[in-house]
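Morning run. Coffee first, then this:
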Amino acid sequence: MRIEFTKAAASGNDFIILDNRDDKLVERGLNLSDFTKFSSRRKFSVGADGILVLEDSKSGNFKMRIFNPDGREVTMCGNGIRCSAMYAYKEKWCSSPMKIETGAGIIEAEVKEESVKVRMTEPYDIRLEQNIGVAKTIMSIHTINTGVPHAIHFVEGIENYSVRATGQSIRCHKMFEPAGTNVDFVEVRDNSTIVLRTYERGVEDETLACGTGAVASAIISHMVRSVKEPISVVTRSKDVLKIYFKKERNSFTNVCLEGTAKIIFQGGIDYV
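And here it is:
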């Protein structure tokens, strides 16, 4: 069958967007998980860090579902929701601001020219200073859930750090079984800026940016290294994300992620 799609990217995190309103793709017999594995392969297909499936919603302007390249559906993607908001705005599905239903709850998004600011769900399961064994080394990590789980480790010399090998070891550590976790490596640049590299679960590699990872890393940097809000997060793509939040005792509210989002091209793919 011929599947029409849109390619979008936010800070180097790229996605294939599918319009599945009225369940029209599913009714045509499309298996979303299988299509994700087929279309996400770089050099062999369109290539992407994930598939965004946009559907009807009773509680928001529309619903976003996110599938990782391994075909598994996850609850949330910070950069994916910015791409979804930009797409819906440009296609005139809705005006700005808008509400988007996700597996992690309702997300509010505001489009500002080429930038999108989204209000994230409140983070939870924050646990600091945990020691785990990785490749015969004891490492200190901090864990948090910002819609999906993240483990954060502070490093020096991040440009030359072994993100892929170490990230894979932490992602698959028995502490995070069976689902695994995303892994963020953070270097503090100054009192309001951090540099971030992320190994993403489901992609099983480092990506150029990760929205939920940026939020997770910013909050942990504030708690552990006293980095001040708003926090600038320099991604692997060199794009800078802005993270805003309010801290009330040991909880965080009004957590927002802001950065660029672009529609790259539209096309079609023959899928059997």
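The helical segments are 24-27, 32-39, 78-90, 163-171, 211-225. Good start to the day.
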